[in-house]
Amino acid sequence: DQQVKQNSPSLSVQEGRISILNCDYTNSMFDYFLWYKKYPAEGPTFLISISSIKDKNEDGRFTVFLNKSAKHLSLHIVPSQPGDSAVYFCAAMPMDSNYQLIWGAGTKLIIKP
Amino acid sequence: DTAVSQTPKYLVTQMGNDKSIKCEQNLGHDTMYWYKQDSKKFLKIMFSYNNKELIINETVPNRFSPKSPDKAHLNLHINSLELGDSAVYFCASSHLAGGHNEQFFGPGTRLTVL
Fold this sequence. Notes:
The structure holds 2 protein chains of 2 kinds. Chain A is mostly beta strands. Chain A has strands at residues 4-5, 10-14, 19-25, 30-38, 45-51, 56-59, 62-67, 72-77, 86-94, 102-103, 107-112.
């Protein structure tokens, strides 16, 4: 039973354009969401997070949007750069969960020159 | 400089053997984790220790035993290795504060059981 879903296994975007990565969740008890980036043969690295009391959080080229009614969040990267090519994981934390994170399967982003 | 380190990076071993993976963090965090990334690339939490106390213990075979000698170390010992244990194992750490949990990951240990 996947509580966090990233339905696109891969996404290809032209350099300089906007990359939009999507994540859907089923558990209404999730109250904190994170995006991680992972290069091959490395561990995931934290990118950006958002609390359920907000609908947007921005950090440089990265913006995360949260739509609680649709149980959907998205990560926007603009402009996309070649170094952004990686696998992106969405993760969610339920309230009262001992801070456990529930992870999506990841989306592989490929930035074309 | 390395924030979260794991050793070894690669581990190839025979079925039935016992092996350990070590993890150390120099970030001063109070919580450490072990994850397994399976063949479908899902990251699944196995264990979590907060201040050397076990706080998350997901359903894993009891052949897997975490050991936390101090807050900076969380080692994973696996007895009687099986083919299905082949995976990438990630260690992570975080500081639990304010309801947030940005975890910092090690580079992973690729375990291959033959």
